[in-house]
Amino acid sequence: MKVTMRSQIMTSVICLLITATSYAAVTTIQPNEASSGDVFTYAFPEVNAGFGAPGPTTPDDLNWDDPNDFPVNNIITIADTTSRNTGDATLQHDSHTLIKFDLSSSGISSGDVTSARIGLWAADGNTATGGVFANPTVVNALVVNVNAITQAWDETTVTWNTTPTVNGTAASQTIIDGISQWFWFDVSTLIGDWLDTPANNNGVALSLTGPFTVAGAENFAPFDNADPFDGELFVASAFVSSSGTEAFRPKIEITTVPEPSTYALIFGAVAIGLKFSLCRRK
Prior knowledge:
alpha+beta, 2 domains, 4-stranded antiparallel sheet, 4 helices, 28% strand, globular
């Protein structure tokens, strides 16, 4: 069968594209509790002492890094309940998740990165919090902001009142519309800086864009005297933390491909091979 130069070139180009595609790789980092950086800070309710809260003026400085903390073992959460009128005090049940990953041993060059995303497994927050919050659904979905954290923090000491500063512009947003599945938070615009300047890798803060409610039993009925949200249940997101089941721990996936210089080498090798093949046919 006669093979023309054009057909050989086309075949070579196809082989080049297949080869280039095969070079794309995904690196997954999924640390355990000992080497992780994930926690949620919680503005505990300012109510009477019978509930164990500190008083009517300042939210409690709580840190939920300890996996034995009651009532939310092994999860990280995001909630927004706004300020709520409880007679003589303001009641808040807001929470933000802070998360970061150590990339120092990844061996990845920022020039090779095409995308990066953080994966969190959505847990049954309704059960985990004893029915305090409703789970998100397709009908009652949550919108989560992903903001770069701009100062250092320690998961063992950070609290709601000492939450680190963040970039005011969200790097991305994610819609949470269910549980028992992975949700992905795009950090593609942040990963390059984290790799080039490790000191800037303070991770991200996840927060809701606003309060979300559904009809249902009152969240905090025993403490509400004049609540504008009576008869409504707040929707919140809960995710498995790094102290939870191994397969469902937070992770970051970084997709890389060779830099242009690498593609040039591949193309050069194909061209040399093609030239050698044509010369043999003469």
